[in-house]
């Protein structure tokens, strides 16, 4: 078992999830509460990584963050190193790739909140920030949990974006999915079984946490 890759995968997933929460909560509130035809275009852009092949997304990001573009050269001058083939680059790629998995549950949860509660809060003088933190987020707690767990799992298991944008650098960009690919490529199926079992166990445990909250809530109501 490559514990270095395991730790890096968890670190990548944790950093990605934290950043996504900071982006997805206000973005989802805007999509639900906002008005304007441009919001449909915004939602389409946010959802695009869900249907775009990960290798294609990884390639675009590799080119964008590389030294051949103005953005890539600017980032290199600012940080002293390119973002491509680095952990920071993987974080950026993972945030973009997993954004729909954080936004979609929150949009569904926020949209299910009774509009009477939202209108009452507005009448009492609640601003946008207080409206989101005091009404939408507490009422849509299960959606918030899903918006944490799903991107985390998605990042732990992602392969195409990691391979294209980060390559296979031990301790820097080699994640469990890359390790699994290498093990299968080398016909080391015993090691691949163990790596796959860990990824499967993480997924089952995290999804069980989401669905258990729904079961417990239903039991309390009964």
From TrEMBL:
**Superkingdom of this entry's organism?**
Bacteria
Q: Which GO molecular function entries does the Swiss-Prot or TrEMBL record give?
A: molybdate ion transmembrane transporter activity
Q: Where are the transmembrane segments?
A: 12-33, 39-65, 77-100, 120-137, 144-166, 196-215
Q: What Pfam family is a match, any one?
A: BPD_transp_1
Q: What is its main location?
A: membrane
Keyword vocabulary terms for this entry: Cell membrane, Membrane, Molybdenum, Transmembrane, Transmembrane helix, Transport
Annotated function: Part of the binding-protein-dependent transport system for molybdenum; probably responsible for the translocation of the substrate across the membrane.
Q: Where is the ABC transmembrane type-1 domain?
A: 6-211
Q: Which InterPro entries match?
A: MetI-like (IPR000515), MetI-like_sf (IPR035906), ModB_ABC (IPR011867)
Record's bilayer topology term? Multi-pass membrane protein
Q: What is this protein called?
A: Molybdenum transport system permease
> Lineage of this protein's species?
Bacteria, Pseudomonadati, Acidobacteriota, Terriglobia, Terriglobales
Q: Would the keyword Ligase turn up in this protein's UniProt record? A: no
As for subcellular location, the record says: Cell membrane
Which terms in the GO cellular component ontology are assigned? Answer: plasma membrane
| UniProt cross-references to Gene3D superfamilies, sorted A to Z | MetI-like (1.10.3720.10)
Similarity annotation: Belongs to the binding-protein-dependent transport system permease family. CysTW subfamily.
């Amino acid at each position: 078992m490559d514990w270095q890759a395991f730790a890096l995968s968890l670190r990548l997933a944790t950093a990605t999830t934290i950043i996504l929460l900071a982006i997805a909560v206000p973005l989802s509130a805007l999509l639900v509460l906002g008005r304007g035809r441009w919001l449909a275009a915004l939602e389409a852009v946010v959802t695009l990584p869900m249907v775009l092949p990960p290798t294609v997304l990884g390639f675009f990001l590799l080119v964008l963050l590389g030294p051949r573009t103005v953005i890539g050269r600017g980032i290199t001058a600012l940080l002293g190193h390119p973002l491509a083939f680095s952990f920071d680059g993987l974080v950026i790629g993972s945030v973009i790739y997993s954004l729909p998995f954080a936004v979609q549950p929150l949009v569904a949860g926020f949209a299910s909140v009774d509009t009477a509660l939202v209108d009452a809060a507005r009448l009492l003088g609640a601003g946008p920030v207080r409206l989101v933190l005091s009404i939408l987020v507490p009422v849509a707690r299960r959606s918030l949990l899903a918006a944490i767990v799903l991107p985390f799992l998605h990042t732990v298991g992602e392969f195409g974006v990691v391979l294209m944008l980060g390559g296979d650098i031990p301790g820097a960009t080699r994640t469990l999915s890359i390790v699994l690919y290498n093990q299968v490529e080398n016909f080391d199926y015993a090691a691949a079984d163990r790596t796959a079992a860990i990824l499967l166990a993480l997924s089952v445990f995290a999804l069980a946490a989401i669905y258990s909250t729904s079961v417990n809530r239903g039991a309390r109501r009964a």
